[in-house]
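Issue 218. Parser rejects a valid record. Input:
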Amino acid sequence: MTSKPFLCALTGDVQAVPPIWLMRQAGRYLPEYRALRAEAGSFLDLCYDPVRAADVTLQPIRRFGFDAAILFADILLIPQALGQDLRFAEGEGPILDPIRDGQALAGLAMDGLHDRLEPIYETVERVRGHLDSKTALIGFAGAPWTVATYMVEGGGSRNFENTKVWAFRDPEEFGRLIDLITEATIAYLARQIDAGAEAVQLFDTWASALPETAFARWCIEPAHRIVAALRESHPDVPVIGFPRGAGLALADYAARTGVQAVGLDSAVPVGWARQAIQNQCTVQGNLDPLMLVAGGTAMTNEIRRIVSAFKDGPFVFNLGHGILPHTPPEHVAALVDAVRSAP
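Output the parser choked on:
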């Protein structure tokens, strides 16, 4: 049993005041983050610095009093830990040496995964030690499909052409990449849990890129394997799945993966989600991040609409995607007040 509102919601409890946390709640919109980021030197240096990364994780908890903290790290630490070169160019995002065939895939390995990721586990331990009895800690990883797109494309992409062509043309070989990422993700999340994470989230940011059958194979099946493995090793730790842009396939995702909660992006109709998803598991979402940038009455009214729609079932308030860098911090404070006064 737990007294933490966020964890209670994930176990199916219906609460009068929904717990709240926000994706990218630690980040560039906060002046204290920007100051610490400048001290660290580079983004990756910050991720691998347990003292600073723990501080970044705790910054929004100190400022806004969210019901959960989420580990500050990056989904591309797994490719790097598997042996793929990774760097972040200012203004360009991540750059990786592309993996586009079996020969390149053979250069990746699980050996040394935990040694490379040890600083992340130390960050988890540090954060858990600074949270009060009401605030939960979320660990996370990128879902295998989304991580694979970066590994194959060599960074971000508009249409994921190289990844999709490989998956369609040679699903057996591409499946080896997905299997490796899945195995690494299970190991990574299990160690985060061992270090103190009380729930974990899978971010499948580019799930929308896949048609129906490919979505089932490359999004649902790996997520199911991850959830099943974690349920066996850590049966009391809930898993949240966030297949962004999945649309109607969200219901199938909820039913077949076994996740305890599904994150809703901003395009998901709340009435449909209440009927199709909330009767299976907890729902989490789904204010448009730009509504948070706008603030004011429009934001407050939308918060009330979302809270009202989900109030009769297990629910966690969140955005439909991450906080944008130009979001005014005072709007975030107003959002928290609005959610907690909406009922």
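Fixed in the parser; the record now loads. The chain has 16 helices and nine strands.
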